[in-house]
Amino acid sequence: MLLTPFLYFIERGKGEAEETNCMNRMKNLFTLLTLLLWTLVACSNDSVVDENPDNGRTDIPGNLPVQNVARAIELIDNAVECYFSGTGMAMSRYYNPYTGSRSSELGSVWMYTSSIEAVNAAMKAMKAGQARGETALYDSHFNRYKELLVQLYDNLEYYAGTFTLTSYTQTKQWTVYGVNRGNDKGAAQVEGILNVYDDQMWLIRELLESYHITGEKRYLEKAEYLMEYVLDGWDCTLDEQGNPLGGITWGPGYLTKHSCSNGPIVSPLVWLHEIYKGKSDEVTYGYVAADNSRKLRTEKKSDYYLNFAKSVYAWQKKYLLRPDGVYDDMMGGSDAPDIQYVTIDGERYRTGSKLRDRVGPAITYNSGTMLSGAADLFRVTGDAAYRTDLAELTDNSFAYFAKPDATKPGCYTFDISGFCNWFNGVLMRGYVDAYSAHTAAVSCIEAFQSNLDYAYENYQYKHMLPTNLLVGWHKAEQNKNNVEGMFTFAFAAEYAVLANYEWSKK
Question: CB neighbours of 127 closer than 8 A, spacing ≥ 6?
Fold first, then answer.
């Protein structure tokens, strides 16, 4: 299982070593020997319940970014084998490395997307390493992961379905991704509350990452289609002053407007702006005119995407930023118990959601997406206000969410209840994105590196990390060692993102 890719890695390395300079040959040889040792140890222990935490460890002393990428690959390769089954790559929600059992419960589309996130992050890190002369991991794994990415996207279609939606400006048929996996490709239930906008947003982000990494236009095309669907959910109806209410509801079947259905789309909008900057490509979209009629407007894509990024960011900052400097969960408190519709000029449209209440709790990823959004907006606009925002949010969020561990120097405790392990990874990515404009983020980033390394060096077992990185496994009750698949992929993605961060400093 793990042996094959790494033996392939070694054979490739033999043939290409002469094409590099002497320094790179030495670095790559060291990496190859280290990973070969890991592979041999891993295979010898693979069928044994070994309490030794040093079970197949990947250690590359003196080369932290390469070690981070190698550990990411290790976690991903094992996770693909443990969590996925069948030709359709059905993803079990849980796997227990002590019992070797996977759950019958399947992961949602959001959980499935975490695997794409990890593969993208690893491939991006491989490319970054290759650009800096660290070619061994790229040469061995990039094309293999490119093929894995194709398989993941192909089987993502088990979550796809088609329905007709009446929005604020139109009625249209859409093919999007439902919460739950269907029995056949394209046959998932997606009506009403069975799809949510944030699930599409996480996919848009990964599709654009895949496009940037591979250059394959199909990923861009799918990202733009889903972006059109998501922005169709923007509440463009007008308040009493004639201003758009703004905000995107959690999904087409909801009234509430969430941090998670707004913040995650800011960065992808900026990326699309960058893709089309200086090009003549246009987009036509609907809006609500001052007389409450529905009109069409045509803009250059570059302007459209950037303006939307600014609008979504501004809406979330206005309504969901708390006095203590982190973001709440959602806006609620509607007077209407259900979605309302209005007929104008013979056509039916959804009415706007006027919400009164900012509702908590503060969750790490809601601040993390706004950190990334502010960093991207600052990068493309140069507007110092975004830099101020990201600096304040970096400092405030770390003070709020991270607590020094009294027994483990350099480590910090974060809330890991519910889905927080994945949420925390989004916050870490925000710190990495913010770093170039606010170098004080370094201490925040180092906390995540310390936590991951502590878990890896003390608790790594059969190429997996425990849910609680600082506490470890349940040794007395091995049946309690189920790990969410999306957590395993999140840890791998974090390692890969940290590799890119380390290289960015050099």
Answer: 138, 142, 213
